Amino acid sequence: MREISWNELVRPGGLVSEPLGSGIFRLSESLLSADERSFFYLVHGNDRSCLIDGGWGFCADLLDRLPRETKDLVAIATHSHFDHIGHLSSAGRRFGHRDEALIFRDPNIEATQAWPYLAGRPCLADGNSIEARSVGQHPCPLTDLVDEGDEIDLGGRVLRVLHTPGHSPGSISLFDEATGTVFCGDILLEGDIYDDIPGADRNVLLKSHERLSSLSFDRLLPGHGRAMDRLAVLKRMERYREALGRKLIG
Ligand SMILES: [Zn+2]
Ligand SMILES: [Zn+2]
């Protein structure tokens, strides 16, 4: 296994774009192994398009690679971890929660949790790892602070902001009520949910799950792993609750 420097990985191309219908595209980066990829989303409104999260940041010509109908791009960050903020600086306006505003302004490797996560981890598709100390995310200061109940209007499409902490203090989810879609970042996914990292809080995360389950959504699009329908989401939440109960007793 080789350690590759971050700068060597930032190059044109490598963007995977999958249409999910209703003007939503799921984006990811082919340089990464399937397990390590994060998903970020492009959502079209009549007046502007919106990136929800920004991947790791390896696609040097992202704006040229987005679907043709993309216009007046803004970005919303579900949270500030290194695997979700890479391309946020491509958008002129960036929405996010105040509790992580300092990290978006200065995304150093400790604050974004690239370190120690990446150290010695074979996360690239070719089996190699990234030299963790070389990670260089662009500053992407928030231009618009958002909180629970705020609405982001893309023209004919409104994304409602829910403050859903627990994975990180400033984690937000976005509810696109018209299509019954929730974008939830890392607070719920099919695989392991990181709830023991700096800034995480399991009891708070449980409350955020309850909050999400009270919404009338049909599908959930997470920051990692497959899309889930409502039943799959409720089952995953139950599995998490049970595992947590066992941990607390054990
Ligand atoms: Zn995260
Ligand atoms: Zn993540």
Strand order of the largest sheet: 2-3-4-5-6-7-9
What average pLDDT do the residues reach? 96
Please state roughly what percent of the residues sit in beta strands, choosing from under 5%, 5-15%, 15-25%, 25-35%, 35-45% or over 45%: 15-25%
Q: Approximately how much helix is present in the residues?
A: 10-25%
Bound ions, cofactors and other small molecules, one mention each: zinc ion
Multimeric state of these chains? single chain
Encode the helix/strand succession as letters: EHEEEEHEEHHEEEEEEHEEH
* Largest β-sheet summary: 7 strands, mixed
Gap between N and C termini, in Å?
37 Å
Total strands: 15
Alpha-beta content class: alpha/beta
Number of helices: 6
Compute the CA-based radius of gyration: 17 Å
Describe the structure.
With 250 residues, the protein is α/β, with parallel strands linked by helices. 20% of the residues lie in helices and 24% in strands. It contains six helices and 15 strands. The strands form three sheets. Strands 2-3-4-5-6-7-9 form a seven-stranded mixed β-sheet, with no helix packed on it. Strands 10-11-12-13-14-15 form a six-stranded mixed β-sheet. A two-stranded parallel ribbon has the order 1-8. Helix 5 runs antiparallel to helix 6. The radius of gyration is 17 Å and the shape is globular. The model has no long low-confidence stretch (mean pLDDT 96). The chain binds zinc ion (2 copies). One zinc ion binds next to loops.
